[in-house]
Structures are given as C-alpha cells and as structure tokens.
Amino acid sequence: MSCSFNCSAPAPALSPNSDITGIGIIINNIVTAGFVVVIVSLHYITVHDPTCDPFRKDDQNLPIPYRPNPIDVNALAQTKLVLWHAHFVSNGSEKLTNFLLKCIRAFSDIQIVTGFSILISGFLQLRCGLATYHWLVIVHLAWISCITQLSCLSLLRKHLRDHTTERVLRLIAVGVLVILLIVGLSFTGNYHWAFDAGNSDHPTLSDSAICYLHPRPEMNSAFLSMPYSMIILIFGFSSRVIIVYDTLSVRVVGRARSFLSKHIRRLLRIVYDRGIIYDRSEVSSSPRSLKQIFCYLPLLSVYFTCWVLVDVWDSTVQEVLWFITAFVYGIGGLMTTIYRPEKMGLEASLTGFNEWTFGQVASVVLLAAPLITVIEYFQEDDTPVPDTTLVQETTPTRDETSTKDETSTKDETSTKDETSTKDENSTKDEPPAQETTPAQGTTPIPEMNPAQEPPRHKR
To answer: Which residue spans adopt a coiled-coil conformation according to this UniProt entry (predicted)?
Structure first.
C-alpha cells in the first residue's frame, strides 16, 4: 500500500489487507479475549467473596463497617452452594485464587500490548490511504481489547491496593487506550455503509478514512452508535477508577450515598407522619389516607427502586455481565463489518478474510503462548512444599539444648525444695515440748511483739 491519499480523486477500489482483516489476526484477538471471559466468569463464581472488604488489610480495623452487596450475596449463594462440593473448590480455594490472579495479570498485559499495537498501527496507516472498511475493523478489534482490560481492572482491585505503582501504571495505560479508541470512534459517525448495505453516500467502504475525519451530525444509526459506544467506554473507565481507590469508592461515593439516603428517609418520615395527622384530624376509619396513597407510597417505591439500582451498579455481577455483553457486542460488530462487502455484492476475496497466509498461520500458532503460561502457573501452584520437619526433629538446636539444661536444673531445684519442705512439715508434725515454768530467782524471757520483729532481707 502506497503512503499517499487524494481526497479529491474518485474512490479507489477496495483492496484486501490481510494484516487487518486476516482470519488469523481475527481468531487470535477473539480467542485471547475469550480466555479472559472464561477466567473472569470462573473467578466470580468460585473465588469472589462479596462479604470481604477489598480495601481492608488483615491487621486493619476500619472505623466504618463494611456492607456486603446484597445483589452479589444473593447471586452467589446458590451457585457456590452447588460448586462447594467440587474438589477443586473445597480444598484448593486459595490455590485457585492465586492461579486466577496470575492469569488475569498475564492476560491483562497481553491486552494492553494488543490494544496499543492495533490503534498505533491504524493511526500510522491513515496517511497511507487506509480505507474506512479497514479502519472500522481496527476500531472493533481495539474495542474488544479495551473492554477486556477494563474488566481485568475490576478483579485486580484487591491486588492493586497493595501495589500502588502498578495501579498507577495500569490506569494510565488503560486511560490512554480509552482516549485513542474514543478518537478512533469519532471518525466512524458517518459510515452509513456499515448499517445500510444499500446506502451509496460517501464515505463508501473504499474511501480513505483520513478524508472523512469530521462526521456530519445526522439522526441515523451510524451517527448514534458513535456516542453510545463512547458513553460505554467513559462510564466503564470512570467506574474502574472509582473502585480501585478507597478514597473515591468509600469516602466520596460511599459517604455521598449515605448522606442522600439519610435525608431521603427523613423526607419519607415527614410525609408519613403528615399522613397520620391527616387521618386523625379527619374522621376516617381507614388506616391509610389519600396523602399516604398518592404521596408516601410512590415516594417509597421510588426510593427502593433507586436503592436497588445503585446496588446493581455497585455489584460485581453487573461488571461481569457488562463485560460479557460488551464482548459479544464487539464480536457482533466485528463480524458484521467483515462480511459487509459480500452483502454489498462485492467479491469475498476483497476482504482478505479467508486467506491463510504466513502471518495468519503464525497468529494462530502464537495462541499457544498464553496457554503455556496458564499451564506453568497451574504447575507452580501444584509444586509440593518440601517437608523439613524430620530434619528439624533429628537435629536438636541450641535452644532445645539450653531448654533441656534449664529443665534439669529446675527439676533439681524443685527436688531440693520438696525435700526441705518435707523436713519442715515433719518438724511441725512433732509433738510440742512440755512448757517449763521458770525457776525462782530467774527472770522470764519476755515475748517479742510481732510488730517489733526485725525486718527480713529479701531472698
């Protein structure tokens, strides 16, 4: 492909570009992200504990008690009850947790590199006359990589709490990736051909993408899908930034939620009390007044609905379902875009999807690399710890020797004390000597007052 473009010239014919739409490239990206979907789902079902505070350390007592999310508690109650009888869950939960954590970190790093390589290569090829068809494929591939990385941040929240440097670096990398993807999405607002195969308006799928960087605002599917995708990315990244920092998650969002809940409950109480006063002032045998029916109950319903929605938004099951939905949405858009030329009556060879060239075969073979990494992590957790108790039992230490000497010394001392005690007791058991009266002319010995006894020295 020549690095030149001419926006005033007629649109050139679509040429295949297997580096972007090749079947090996597509399979590699989808399968790698699919691994993350499986790991995230497995982590949530078998390892995630909704009653554990992710910001609390083992030796830390927080002043505010942690409130488990009721959505996660109810969603995992029956699932964990069934899986708890499985051997790898009941006996190896800690091992499984470490194994899944290592896998998530490894695949997260892979997706960061993949996302940057896709978007940077695409931006560099824009000046080479990259077609809008290939640019939209690049955007879909970057979408899958980006939402995969956002999902990994949610599960790494507890790990990133203890590794602040890694947390900052990951957030910066994901933030830059999100910004690049949003910029790439902004070019696709007037790609009408992606939603309507019969639309011949420019840009066509073979037009240079660099010539149509500023879409015309029109109320159609092509334009509306652009801000919708941007909102999902912004919402996903913002929520991940909040949940990985306890300052934002607990002190800002948590206190704001408590503040609003407190005042709303106070308002509901006022409305309820006024309804009771109305019943007493008016002669009515019904326990509910019109104020309670038309004011209090609707407000109470709105309050509970908002409370449930906030719990759903804050739950981990929502994040897992969001990731799966966004992943399916990205794959659907990617495959629809790839087969769009065939629906428009063009030859299938122009997509370059069905050609198994050298790069496509290499991309599929490289899928073995993450699999090998997973196997190595699993074998590391299965490595038995050498038993050193026998060696310690056969070789006495200095402390044990000194302890034995002290014990023997104490036994000898205690034996002596017991002997002296027995002698004293035997002396006390002897009958007292008969008292003799002093003879005449002798002076009796005065008894000593206990208070006048001389002080004894401490032993």
So the answer is: none
